[in-house]
Amino acid sequence: MRTPLPGVAAACGLAAMLLLGACTATGRQASDGAAVAPSPADEAAQQSTVDTKWGPLGPADRDLIVRVRQAALWEIPVGRQAQRRAARTTTRRNLGEIARRHAGSDALARQAAVKLNVPLPDQPTPEQQSWLSEITGKSGNDYDRTAIARMRTADGLLYASIGAVRGSTRNTLVRAFAEKCEPAVRARLKLLEGTGFVTGDTLPDPPQVASAPLPGNPKQPASPAPAATALLAGR
């Protein structure tokens, strides 16, 4: 098993909790970007579900809106900086395009937040600020590789969160928001992968599954499975 990038393990854990319908209290952020530990009242409020005219608004719903906003707050600066500093033309072009496209996702998050009364952050989290510092400290291909690895991991986890919320939310506005965000994040993943810097050793480990079919014998080619409709004939 590969050693994940710093912060990836924690992010993977949060994505897994979202898939299970949970949401961890993350606390607030001070004006200087430092994390503020949540009080018991904060934690209770973060886990509460409130009624809206679009249906119940749960913690995972609010968290997704914040995550889309949060992604823009650090990926836009990286993309703009990469337009000037990246070593390869493809990196400069693709990350610049990502920065441009984030404006649309950020607008969606701000519109949803106003309608649903969800407070939004105005700066990157401390962890995201550390990524920005790490990327800025690199040069040449190391700059490209580090920026792309960080963004690809973060957007991969955001993509999983969007799917989890889209599949579980009872709020129709949040469902529509997730549907609009999914193609935007998928496009960012393709732009990152199109740089050539996304390789197996830069990706997080695949999710663990409870059961899976055994691999087939490579010496015995598998026969095509019959169509499902053929198996259901007469039923």
Outline the structure in words.
By secondary structure, the protein is mainly α. It has one domain (8-212): Ferritin, CATH 1.20.1260.10. 60% of the residues lie in helices and 2% in strands. Strands 1-2 form a two-stranded antiparallel ribbon. A hairpin with a 5-residue loop joins strand 1 and strand 2. Helix 3 runs parallel beside helix 7 and helix 4 (89-116) runs antiparallel to helix 7 (172-193). The chain is globular. The chain starts with 7 loop residues before the first helix and ends with a helix. 28% of the residues are buried.
* Helix proportion: 55-70%
Mean pLDDT: 85
The helix tally amounts to 8
Can you write the helix and strand succession as a string?
A: HEEHHHHHHH
Strand order of the largest sheet: 1-2
- Count of beta strands: 2
Main sheet? 2 strands, antiparallel
InterPro entries: DUF4142
Keywords: Signal
Protein name: DUF4142 domain-containing protein
Organism: Actinomadura darangshiensis
SSE topology sketch:
Blueprint (H helix, E strand, L loop, with lengths): L7 H12 L8 E2 L5 E2 L3 H7 L12 H27 L3 H28 L9 H11 L3 H29 L3 H22 L34 H4 L4
Antiparallel strand pairs: 1-2
Helix pairs in contact: 1-6, 3-4, 3-5, 3-6, 3-7, 4-7, 5-6, 6-7
Protein name: DUF4142 domain-containing protein
Keywords: Signal
Pfam family, one: DUF4142
